[in-house]
Structures are given as C-alpha cells and as structure tokens.
Hints:
This protein is α/β, with parallel strands linked by helices. The chain folds into 3 domains: about 20-55, no CATH class; about 60-230, Leucine-rich repeat, LRR (right-handed beta-alpha superhelix); about 270-440. Helix content is about 40%, strand content about 15%. The protein has 21 helices and 17 strands. It has helices at about 5, 15-20, 30-40, 45-55, 65-75, 80, 95-105, 130-140, 175-180, 185-195, 205-210, 235-240, 255-265, 310-320, 345-360, 380-385, 410-415, 415-420, 430, 440-460, 475-480, and strands spanning about 85-90, 110-115, 145-150, 170, 170-175, 195-200, 220-225, 250-255, 275-280, 290, 300-305, 310, 330, 370, 375-380, 395, 400. The protein has an 11-stranded parallel beta sheet with strand order 1-2-3-6-7-8-9-11-13-14-16. Residues about 1-5 and about 465-480 have low confidence and may be disordered. This is F-box domain-containing protein.
Amino acid sequence: MSSRESTSISLPVELYHHILSYFNEFDFQTRQATLVALSSSSKTLRRIAQPYLYTHPRDLDTAERQWKFQLALLAEPHRAILVQSLQLLWLAEGVNSGLLIDIVRSSPHLKSMLLERGEKYRDSNRITLQDVEDLASLLDACSELISFRYTTMLAWTFEDAMHEGDDAINGEVRTARLAQRLNDTRFVSAARRLTELSLHNQAEWIAQALLPFTSSRLQSLCLGPDLSLAFDRNLLCNLAGHSPFLESLRIRSSVRIHDLIQACKAWAPTLRVLQVILVKDDEGLPARITGIFPTMPVLQEFYLGAGCYTTIEAFGAIAQTLAASPIQYFTVRNLQGLVNVDDELAASTQLNNAVCHLVRSCSETLQTLELKRGDSQVGRSVLHACQEARNLVRLLVSPLTDVSPLENVVPSDLDDLLHTCPALSQIPATLLGISSCQELWHERSRSLEKQEEENRKKDQGNWGLGCYSRWSNWSNLACMP
C-alpha cells in the first residue's frame, strides 16, 4: 500500500457509492472525465468507479481508443462483464473490423451498439463482400444485443465515379452476389433478437439484411434520411406482419402513403410514436395526406414533416381520429388550405374548429402543438382552448390578424396563457409580437433552453461519434497495478 493511501481517510464503501451517485447530475463528458480521474487516484476508488465507467463507456471513435479499450478489458477481464453499450467507429475499407469483433466478443452482456461507418467525409463508401461477412460476424458475437444503430458520415458517390464491379455504393446493393451474401443466418438471428433498430444514411444494404427478419420483439424502428426503401414497395406492411407490436416508428426517408396507412392500421393498438417526414404515391411523386389514419388509442407523438402535404379537410379528420389518444406532441409542418376553396374565412373557421377540438380532447396530456406553413394561422378561439391545456410547453402557431374581427388575436388572448399554462415557454415571433408581456415570455424561453441543453449533455445518446472533445485514456486504467 502506498504512503498516500495509508494516510488517507478511509470511508465506508456505501458512502463512496453515495458520493459517486451525485455525478449523475453532471453532463456526460464531465461525469466520465471525473470518474477516470478518480479511478487513477486509488485502488479503492478505481474498484468503485469501474461499474460507472464501463457499463456505458464513452464512444470509441478512433482505432487507437479501441485498442486501448480492448487492452483495458484484457488487463482485468471482470471489466468486460460490466459493458452493456458501445459506440464504435467502423473505418472505411473495414480496416478495423477484426478489432471491433474482438471487442464485442470480449463483452458478453452487450445490449446496445452504435456503429458508425467512416472517419472522414471523403472516405470510400464502397461496401464489399468482406464487409458483409464482418458485420455478420460482429452481430453474431453479440448474443444479448437488443438495440442496434447504424449510420454513416460519408460523401455520396456520383454515377460517373462508380465502377461496374462495385458490389455496393452509397449503401445501395448493386450486384446479385452481394444480395445473396445478405441471406446469412447470422443476420436472421440478430434481427430476431432486436427490440430497437435505427438505420441512417447509406444503410440500405443493412436494411435488406435485417428488416425482413425482425420479430415480435421489435418495439422501436427509426429509418433515417437518405435511406432508400425502394427494395420493398410494401416494406412497412410486411414488417407489421412479423413485428406486430411496434411502439415507435420514425421515418425520415420517403415512404409510400398507402404502405404507411396500412401498416399504421396493423400497429394501431400499440403505436405510441409516429413521425413521418415525406410521403409519396405509387408513382414516386409527392402525395397528399388524407384523413384515413386509424384510431390509435395509446399514441403520444404525432409528427407530419414538411414533405407531408396536408389539407385542412385532412387535418380535421386527423384531429377527429386522434382526439381519443393521449397526445403529448402534435406537429403538422405542411398545412395547406381547403381543396378548391379560396374562401380564407371558411378555411380559418374549419381549421380553428379542428384545432380547438383536438386541444380540448387532449388537454390533460398535450405539451406541444405545432402547425406550420401555408394557411396554418389560428384565431383567438384556439388560444382560449389552449388555456385548458395546463401542461402545454410549446405553442408554435401563427395568429390570425386580418381575416375576421371576431378571430383576430389580441394581446390578452396570448398573455392569459402565462397564468393558465405555467410551463408554456416557447412561442413563435409572430405571437410574441402581439404580447404586452414580452420580457416574461423571453425569460421562460431562456429557462427552457438552458434546461434542455443541460439534459442533452447528460444523455449519452446525444453524444454521437465525432462530437465534442475526447476524455478517455484507457491506457492509464489498463496499466494501473
């Protein structure tokens, strides 16, 4: 025992754990850096801090950090048992594939993995048969994996730079031999274990390998931007057939409107989150949202993005259908006028009636109401209805000011919400300009932004690869006696 440890004050182990529990209030980077420093100060603190460090370690975003992390696991094998999540960089050309496979094989209780392909934007985005084999081996080594996220940080290759023998470019399968290689039983086994799957950017080849084989365990699916789903016209309907209990569906790439609606009908009893950015018709052209969404009794978040053209008639039907749902977040970002009707007053009246019905029906749960673009201006009746939504945090709507004296918003319509909705903190500039209590609204907005920034820093999930400075020094931990 060193002289420093022999003369230091010894505290009960329970008290050390109690002290370390306060680190959960730190942002993720500061928390992990502090734990590393404590682990380097004494054997006692190292032993106590290790579960906090290794259960959800910081992202391993370079090959050097991955080697050091693997050495740390080999130096003291009990550390590997602690690991439950990993965030890994997969270098272009697959040069560190073997290292990644060794790391996950050393972590028998790994439950969650983020895999990001490409260190630099201009790295090669070609996928080879060996890459397919390596990913199959990687997933096969994770017998307890239930959450898998894949993304890329790579530039797209244009047609004139492609070669005839390329098996996959931009994540898109180009040869029959690679498509055949995706029919690997290891992909099937991995897909059937998953409860959460998230695929972003150049990930079509992985989508083809996993999505056809998910099971009833799947609860959350996120398909990110730039991910082509053209390989299966009825992807969502087919998915609903073998994964019928989905709770969260976030699609940031284009999807066929018919496929979406039919799948939502199958998932209606369990779906809690529905987020769609862009819908198209059967010919691949932008489609109009119609009011044919099913009743979804447990839905909490409903989001239609800018690529979802929604008429006021369709909005009214949607509001009527979702009125029985415990909606917390409701967003329609491309709201247009009445079909074949130029009467602005008639459009605003129908919109206001629909919004008021939705707000009053969901008044106990509603936290966000966002209507954007086109004819999404609302009158004072909507603001009066919002007084019943006491948990409202965001009201992102534009006010009517020149259509009807009965509906034009006046300052008191907005400022009364300061008293009836104590958590309401975010309103658009168009509403703020009407208020006579602008400084109070600014105070609330600043407080909300500060709290959300603190929450983002605490959440490891918001610290993707390539973000912020790195703290880890696994060589110090591995070499400690």
